[in-house]
Amino acid sequence: MIARSMTAEQFAEQKFELADGGRWAELIAGEPVILEPPTSEHGTVVMNLSRALAESIEQTRVGYACFELGLIVQRDPDTVLAPAISYFLTGDRWAEMDNVVTESCPSLVVEVASTPDRRRSIANRVAAFRAHGVALIWVVDPHQQQISVYSGTDPVDVLKTDHLLTAGGKWVTDNGSPILFGFSLPLTDVFAEPDWWTGR
What we know:
By secondary structure, the protein is an alpha+beta fold. Helices cover about 25% and strands about 25% of the residues.
């Protein structure tokens, strides 16, 4: 039986018993919540960014990415948010790959505002990630085809489709370590369906 108020650890144990196998489940102030299934545009964004991040990680041999990993951003009551992508720069490499939830703090999270519930909660989610210590946040909006970049205490940087998603020396951790040094990706590549996917 699913508890209606739970800790992050209980949530991790019971998540797969929730609707849709807990695929889109999060924990908000101790209460399990099921998000709307993401759109096809959401999937395209995650696929394109995953490929670009994988290429960057392969070149630099720095960091690693996890997908839909539950981040424990608050305790008592517990809140677990699962961004589309979490990129870890510190700690043992691949340490979080098999975890359902973690208290470790990634250097970057990627949120995709693809459904009404995700769009409505973006401001609260960004605030929670920043309070948790996440240094860099990308909020991808497939509808507006733009990315809002939150970096440190800098004002949000809103990138449109004629821009590059690139570090430019501004993406750093609290101790000054660069995040995804050398990474650069045209925004058009973030939103485009790959040729191999469409059969072109």
